[in-house]
Amino acid sequence: MSKPSVLVVDDERDIRELLTITLGRMGLLVDTAGNVAEARARLAAGRYGLCLTDMRLPDGNGLEIIAHIVARHPDTPVAMITAYGNVEAAVDALKAGAFDFVSKPVDLAVLRRLVGNALELQQKRSAAPAASGLIGESPTMLALRQTIAKLARSQAPVYIAGESGAGKERVARLIHEQGPRTAGPFVPVNCGAIPAELMESEFFGHKKGSFTGAHADKDGLFQAANGGTLFLDEVAELPLHMQVKLLRVIQEKSVRAVGASSEAPVDVRILSATHKNLAQLVEDNRFRHDLFYRLNVIELRVPPLRERVDDIPLLVDAILKKLSAEIGEPLPKPDADALAALRDYGFPGNVRELENILERATALCEGDSIRREDLRLPAASARASNLAGTSPGGSGAGAGSHAGAGEAAAPRTTDGSDDLPRHLENLEREAIVRALEECRYNKTRAAAKLGITFRALRYKLKKLAIE
Questions:
Q1: In the CATH hierarchy, which top-level class contains the domain 5-126?
Q2: Which residue ranges make up each domain of the chain?
Q3: Is the CB of residue 162 less than 8 Å from the CB of residue 302?
Q4: Higher confidence at residue 433 or residue 120?
């Protein structure tokens, strides 16, 4: 196999020589250009696995080269070399379509990782496309899958907007899985679930003895995600002092563990989401503008279920298949009237709510099919209120979905609170165990005593892990 080729565009001879030597030691062929015109000529004459370009050039700038490559050589990843601390230039490059960026003076270890990721991406592009994992054939879902495929090729931070239960985490996983970091870890974290006093240690790690209770060295979330993707769910919940530290890590690509005397490099792609309107929080001085600028390089909106009602039959089928596999027996399916009711319902909780409704319906229905009344849908006004835009948070509303579109999950309330469902689950478990004991573990009699079907009892025994 021929060696991959890299095009280096920089007007400084020393930089060109340094990069040529470094990349040559990686077994790569290197061509160089000192300006925009030379770069275009090189690109027209050959095919490259990667282009590295400086921002400032004698006859133009690197953004022109990025635009040229994106338009005429879309299979060639391009990375920008920016001046140290020039955040605006890096963000502009990512928005223009750059794969990644590296700052001067060039850190050779960072450069090698960047080149490795770019060449791996090139190989993945020639492979067969991966299954999307998103269920639906509506125009909005087709467009979403296409956008995910494009974003997977980049290293740009992506802000994923969408309502609670729409599948934001699933989308983040797909961006990771379809990109060059798929072999690396995907680390999701709910920023609102970490106590403020433990955030720095959780994110960056700590050294033994750095504070009371630090009995051993511990890696943080950034170290755990090294070489992969860190998904910051509920990022708006970060306190201001952590926003400052997070911004520095994103800019410097290195972290300092609590109690450590030096920083350690990390190679992490950042994806983020929140149920709140980040732009409004910036205006209210509750979220740092500079961090918002870095996280929201590209915004990706996940459509709510009410905007793709034609996908409901496909989602219903997929969810019921998953539930059936969990209990080891076939489950009834909605009849035509029940499907019509689902299509007419507004789903303020989106796909997660559909999962909950179907799980409840399969447990409670007594016939061979799920009827409209088995669904026990809330008042029909829910659809009207959703279409009127009354759900909190606007287009960025969401409560850290852990279930993707078509990916079944444990039931949760649509307001995102876990306390009430857990309490109700405990009460349900106690009632079932008490009925079984009173009926000497005769399941048929226990089901009758509880006022539910035998199938519903068997399902609940499996769901609640009652032996």
A1: alpha beta
A2: 5-126, 139-301, 305-417, 418-467
A3: yes
A4: 433
